[in-house]
Design a protein that fits this description.
heterotrimer; A mainly alpha (432); B alpha/beta (525); C mainly alpha (410); B: alpha/beta; Rossmann fold; 6-stranded mixed sheet; 20% strand; C: 410 residues; mainly alpha; 19 helices
């Protein structure tokens, strides 16, 4: 028996063995690094822009006053670029040796590249780069994205595709503003926002689970519906008596003692309102519970292989509905950041496509809370960078920076940035 | 116990008794209703009649949870494992040991896996991901799942279908161990050797009914004939074949699937003009892949396929269809028809862009309609209107539509996979007549079938496939017993010798005509 | 039918391939295609009723009257009906025929305005519908409209050509713009299996920023204006009017009619459309029949994008006459609802486009005359589509019988 069998298995075994021995060299990243390093070297270093760039770290009222860092645009660009070139060369060398890069490598590379870029962008006009403002802006712009991405990933990991994050954010923003205004307490708005998000999720699951309507369609249509309802009510009720219905209410900042005094990061991370702190808790909790808890295990099972879950007695559709409602509540909270979180009144369509970026962040983060967080922060940062550059007047167009998250996401789903694999049964109704 | 799907009776008053600590084999062909029955036992389906008694007490299962609680475990044919989970997570799912705030006690889960794993020498790492494990190991995870819930009765649904011979041997020894420890096992299969190797008692099911009990001492040939049924003898009249040149040749064809398993293994054969070569064998021995490779849906790793002197490997499906291959796919509803399309559209599914149905980019509805009506006449298709969706037709009439399409043009080769699966007797006869008519028109015909009746009904020669290889090509007058042995992997000459009739002449005509891969049978142990 | 919606059998490592997605889509198609016209009409009725409720509860007078509902129920109901009635009659007058107008010209102008609003919706809706029929979710109408409008508009003022020729060249530019934009999603789907939903959504945003960027570039806008908008199009590139001014009905509507006929021919009478539909309904059978699924995927997206790009071109060449950041309005998203309401059939999409065009045109009059915000139209539209996607829900609201299932279970 064995003799025959081995010969039969040989071709297969050989090919797989060969493919293992000859794992193709992963050129994608080294090439990317090299191009970026050269761009930095040529444009930010060699061509450069005369003048100095000021990195402003301190903000008024800091415990320790840290002086501004003033660098020559070209010198900084040149030095940073050379480091980048060395790093790129290292990546090429390691790729030839088929050694995978550590996770810190792209991060450090990215940060250095951005700093090099900033030194260049700030030069010429003698610009001041307000670092703290830049980072604080990045976080603020990321908050709704992060909540939205968490909503998306809980839904998809349960098997329900949620394109309606946009609508949930908007509904959350609306209800938070109205309730906070009527009760005259921003915290009341914070309680109301999750209800709005969950209500949108109720419609989503009603059509998706009960009627098996395609979830992408429901999501797209729900977004239109929420825009319609909130804009309609805004134009009628809210504008009629804005003092009663749409007065600004802002969640107060609650600086955390000591932590908030850390230069730069302390200011950015720990001098925030409660919604931001809730966000930290949500992300950390999800990171733990999705992967380590009974709830998370069952959620992932119904999203990946519902029939397997059914055979061990898990109620598939009930689990899906419950989790999607929970996810909707999370997105609703994110929406509250637009109004009570930022101290703004509600405005028509104020979510402005953030729900779609949240979706992108979720995909780029590979359906992991941690990854989605990083992706959302990246998107928030690129937007904040766009804002900062616009205000100091630099040669790079804002729009091109704002495009970046979307382009990265397209590349990600097309498989250029590692393998992106959604939960296997996401979007597939479960029918016994 | 009875289970009905629509008008189809999957299980017809089946009685089955499982003794404690025995291995009870349920033997039957694909679609005989074995799996359905076990799914009812496991609470996945509701029975339409009958009782389940456990230790003489009637029980009802609202869902799998109840069945598990009653001590029934099941290893499904398609594993119920989440590919991205670890072994420990898979075993824990649904019965999670938890610490505070709902966090899973992974240490406990791992311990359980290690415990059972070491008891049976499973060598499973609790932290390995399911998708990284070979199928045999995945199956052991399924067994651990059942055992971790204190299963007293373990149902194994086609457990060896996906295993290599070595893994099968391991599974058999695991089953013996389980039996020693007092677990009853229901072993669903259509593989004869395994049944004989392990079963204490055997129940044979055919078309939803129990057709008999057998003892493990029965010969394989006896079991085979019981399983496929005594000759219903469909009388399809046909003249003696008048074979011409071998215009279709397959040489050294080897096909490897995505998981790098060799599914078609160095297969060579000829089909001559004016003859029907039937490829017999138990489902899943490479016949499907063979047919799909010939039409071009799958690319071979090695070998050549020659039609009229031209190697067609590398050509697109469209080119192959264009060069005169007619193809009736095995899975009609998935590959053969488009359910939403009208009957007349389905009749031109692969010729829509050729004259007379199209001119340039324009379809010619009048011609399509007229041709459709002609074919309805010719093939005796019972329908309301040719513009109704094909989904409104019965399976037999759907298949006639497919046949009318594939036989409705001049062919250089006709391939049909399971052409009569799920059809009523009248339609079967009709299909056979048409195939024979095509043969008589001089077309080489290749028919893949797992139904021995069908093979005998139409074949001029029979090639038997086992484990991706052609065990032998024999004459149509080979005995059922000999074919049964060959389907179990016994080489043609051995099989013929074992069942040889005393008449010397018979044996001579039935002698193997090719001896490719004749020794592969030894693999099956 | 059940086979399509039950989860695929587990494979150890399913790659995110095109095949993996395909199982889901025929189900949607059936949902879209299998309902009856009655369900559509009833869905519109329910949506209008719901819209009426929203109008009523947001109206101060109605709310005031409701407070005295037990004291004076008659007054409540008369306020209720007059408020909702006024809004909807204004909607109708703005969309079809204004019987309050002083001149005949003004009385029939609303109808032509509906056709004007409907033109880009029809064209883009056809693009979405075509993709749906081929099993692809083209959520990227918005981006394709923007690209179409951008290129058509640019050619409209950057080139110097004789009338009609100029317009046609500009329109073809729009077609190419949309085709390229959708083609990206098609190629990525066919080559890498990238989900077209995500890619088209992302391309929508990219297109928006791209246009925003271009409108700040002097070489593109041909103006020195600080506003992010382009020069006004040359007269030679503008779509000529079909009726004398003040009517705005332009040649684009003829194009919409022709495009509807073209899509009908494509889907019902051509070999290409046969391939499209075959791949959409059952990619496995299509492959077995020798149809190249990836080729079809790319081609479908290109044709769909071309139609949407033409919609954008019609908008800029026929109505707007200059490029602005908001050139596309919400045409791309409205077109999805148009295609769904039209059950992805050419004539249905045409009619649905007219209906939603009428809603849009009428919405303006309703807003100006009764103060009912035009946003109510969005609510009505989305409710219509939600209901249409779930025929059983509509049937259960009206207690209609479930149509007899003709299909045989496989």
């Amino acid at each position: 028996m064995t003799a025959q069998n081995t010969t039969a298995a040989t071709p297969a075994a050989k090919t797989s063995a060969q493919s293992k021995a000859l794992t193709p060299i992963a050129w994608k990243f080294p090439i990317t690094y090299t191009i970026l390093a050269l761009v930095s070297l040529i444009f930010f270093g060699l061509i450069g822009r005369d003048g100095e760039t000021t990195f402003r770290i301190a903000t008024s009222g800091d415990l320790f006053a840290i002086p501004d860092v003033v660098v020559s645009s070209t010198v900084a660009g040149l030095i940073l670029s050379l480091i980048l070139v060395v790093m790129a060369a290292t990546s090429v060398y390691l790729a030839l040796k088929r050694i995978t890069l550590a996770a810190w490598f792209p991060m450090v590379f990215g940060i250095l590249f951005v700093v090099s870029f900033l030194a260049w962008a700030g030069g010429g006009s003698g610009g001041v780069i307000p670092l703290t403002t830049l980072l604080a802006g990045a976080l603020a712009l990321s908050v709704p994205l992060i909540f939205g991405a968490m909503c998306g990933l809980v839904g998809e990991r349960s098997g329900i595709i949620n394109i309606a994050i946009e609508g949930q954010l908007l509904a959350g923003a609306f209800l938070a503003a109205v309730v906070a205004s009527v009760v005259k307490n921003p915290y009341a708005g914070l309680l109301a926002a999750p209800i709005a998000g969950a209500l949108v999720a109720v419609i989503l699951t009603f059509f998706a689970v009960k009627y098996w309507v395609n979830q992408i369609i429901i999501g797209v249509v729900l977004n239109v519906l929420v825009v319609g309802v909130t804009s309609f009510l805004y134009s009628t009720v809210l504008t009629e008596d804005p003092e009663l219905w749409n007065a600004r209410q802002k969640l107060p900042d609650l600086p955390i003692p000591l932590l908030s005094d850390i230069p730069i990061l302390g200011r950015v991370l720990f001098d925030q309102n409660i919604l931001v702190y809730i966000m930290y808790v949500v992300v950390i909790a999800l990171q733990i519970f999705v992967f380590r808890s009974k709830w998370g295990l069952r959620m992932r099972a119904v999203g990946e292989h519902p029939k397997a879950a059914d055979t061990v007695g898990i109620k598939v559709n009930f689990t899906r509905v419950r989790n999607t409602l929970l996810a909707g509540a999370i997105a609703g909270l994110g929406g509250a950041f637009f109004t009570v979180g930022s101290g703004l009144a509600f405005g028509k369509e104020m979510s402005a496509g953030q729900g779609y970026i949240a979706l992108a962040a979720m995909i780029l983060g590979k359906w992991n809370p941690k990854g989605a967080l990083l992706a959302a922060l990246l998107f928030g940062f690129s937007k904040s960078l766009g804002n900062t550059l616009q205000s100091i007047g630099t040669p790079v167009a804002n729009e091109l920076l704002l495009m970046l998250p979307y382009i990265v996401t397209v590349l990600a789903v097309a498989g250029f940035v590692g393998r992106v694999r959604p939960p296997a049964s996401s979007g597939v109704p479960y029918v016994k | 116990m009875t289970k009905v799907f629509g008008s189809f009776v999957a299980n017809d008053h089946i009685d089955l008794t499982i003794e404690p600590g025995e291995i009870h084999a349920l033997l039957g062909e694909n679609g005989a209703g074995k799996s359905t029955m076990m799914n009812v036992l496991y609470g996945l389906y509701d029975a339409d009649g009958g009782d389940i008694l456990l230790d003489d007490k009637p029980v009802t299962f609202a869902g799998p949870g109840d069945a598990v609680a009653a001590g029934i475990g099941m290893v499904h044919q398609h594993f119920m494992l989440v590919p991205v989970f670890t072994v420990a997570e898979s075993v824990a799912l649904g019965y999670e040991p938890t610490k505070s705030v709902g966090l899973i006690d992974l240490a406990e889960a791992r311990k359980k896996v290690r415990e059972i794993s070491s008891r049976f020498n499973f060598h499973l790492d609790p932290d390995a991901r399911i998708e990284d494990l070979p199928v045999g190991a995945q199956q052991r995870v399924e067994i651990i799942k059942a055992l971790s819930r204190d299963a007293k009765i373990l149902i194994l649904d086609e457990p060896t279908a996906v295993l290599t011979p070595q893994e099968t041997d391991e599974l058999i020894s695991i089953m013996r161990q389980l039996k020693e420890q007092g677990t009853s096992i229901v072993f669903i299969t259509h593989k004869l050797r395994e049944v004989r190797a392990i079963a204490d008692s055997i129940t044979v099911i055919r078309r939803g009914k129990i057709v008999g009990e057998a003892s493990p001492e029965s010969t394989e040939a006896e079991l085979a004939s019981q399983m496929v049924g005594r000759a219903v003898s469909l009388t399809t009249e046909k003249d003696e074949a008048d074979p011409g040149d071998a215009t279709f040749q397959v040489r050294g064809l080897t096909v490897v699937d995505k998981a790098e398993n060799v599914v078609v293994d160095d297969v060579s054969f000829d089909v001559r003009r004016g003859e029907i070569l039937a490829v017999a064998g138990v489902q899943g021995n490479g016949q499907t892949e063979l047919a799909e490779t010939i039409i071009g849906l799958t690319q071979p790793r090695l070998g050549s396929i020659t039609l009229d002197g031209k190697n067609i490997v590398g050509q697109s499906v469209k080119d192959r269809l264009g060069s005169g291959i007619g193809f009736v796919p095995e899975d009609r509803s998935t590959d053969g028809i488009i359910a939403e399309f009208t009957i007349r559209e389905n009749m031109i599914l692969d010729v829509y862009d050729r004259p007379p149905y199209a001119k340039g980019l324009n379809l010619k509805p009048a011609v399509i309609n007229d041709e459709a009506k002609k074919k309805v006449e010719e093939f005796d298709i019972r329908l309301g209107s040719v513009v109704d969706p094909i989904a409104t037709l019965s399976g037999g009439n759907q298949q006639k539509v497919v046949l009318s399409r594939e036989l409705g043009r001049d062919l250089r080769l006709f391939i049909a996979s399971q052409p009569t699966r799920g059809l009523d007797v009248g339609s079967i006869e009709f299909v056979h007549k048409r195939v024979i008519a095509e043969r008589d028109a001089g077309t080489p015909c290749l028919i893949v079938s797992t139904e021995l009746d069908e093979v005998y009904g139409i074949a001029d020669r029979i090639a038997v496939m086992y484990s991706g290889r052609i065990v032998g090509v024999v004459g149509a007058d080979t005995s059922r017993e000999a074919l049964g042995l060959m389907m179990a992997g016994v080489p043609a000459d051995e099989a013929l010798a074992a069942t040889a009739a005393p008449d010397e002449n018979d044996a001579a005509t039935a002698a193997p005509e090719t001896n490719s891969a004749t020794t592969s049978a030894e693999e099956a142990k | 039918m059940t086979t399509d919606i039950s989860p695929a059998p587990p494979s150890p490592a399913p790659p995110p391939s095109a095949e993996a997605e395909e199982g889901k889509e025929p189900n949607l198609l059936r949902e879209i295609l299998s309902g009856s016209w009655l369900v559509s009409v009833l869905a519109i009725v329910v949506a209008l009723l719901l819209g009426g409720v929203l109008i009523a509860v947001s109206n101060a007078e109605v709310v005031e009257a409701a407070k005295h509902i037990f004291a004076a129920p008659g007054s409540f109901f008369s306020t209720l009906f007059s408020t909702v009635g006024d809004a909807y009659s204004a909607l109708f007058r703005g969309a079809v025929f204004d019987w309050n107008a002083r001149t005949t010209e003004r009385a029939i102008r609303p109808l032509t305005e509906s056709l004007v609003s409907g033109t880009p919706l029809i064209l883009t809706g056809l693009g979405i519908a075509l993709a749906f029929r081929s099993g692809l979710f083209n959520i990227g109408g918005q981006g394709q409209v923007i690209l179409g409008a951008t290129i058509a508009g640019f050619l409209g003022y950057a080139l110097d050509l004789p009338p009609v020729v100029h317009m046609l060249i500009a329109a073809i530019g729009g077609i190419i713009g949309g085709a390229i934009w959708a083609g990206i999603a098609g190629v990525l789907k066919a080559r890498t299996g990238a989900n077209e939903v995500i890619v088209t959504i992302m391309l929508n945003s990219i297109a928006g920023y791209l246009l925003g960027y271009l409108l700040k570039q002097g070489w593109f806008t041909h103006t020195t204006s600080a506003n992010p908008q382009s020069r006004v199009l040359d007269d030679s590139s503008q779509m000529f009017l079909l009726l004398p001014s003040p009517f705005r009905l332009h040649f684009g509507f003829i194009i919409a009619i022709l495009a509807t006929i073209f899509v009908w021919w494509l889907l019902e009478r051509s070999t290409i459309g046969f391939e499209f539909k075959a791949v959409g309904a059952n990619p496995h059978a299509a492959r077995t029949a020798g149809i190249s699924v990836s080729k079809v995927t790319i081609l479908v997206m290109i044709v769909a994008g071309a139609l949407a790009g033409l919609g954008g071109a019609a908008q800029v060449l026929g109505t707007e006459f200059k490029l602005t950041g908001g050139i596309s309005g919400s045409i791309g998203f409205d077109a999805i609802t148009v295609a769904l309401l039209g059950r992805s059939k050419p004539l249905g999409t045409f009619l649905a486009g007219l209906l939603f065009g009428a809603f849009k045109a009428g919405g303006y009059l309703m807003q100006s005359q009764t103060g009912t915000p035009i946003d109510i139209v969005l609510v009505v539209q989305s409710v219509i589509v939600l209901l249409i996607a779930a025929p059983p829900l509509v049937r259960s609201i009206f207690r209609l019988p479930t149509p007899a299932l003709k299909r045989k279970e496989a």
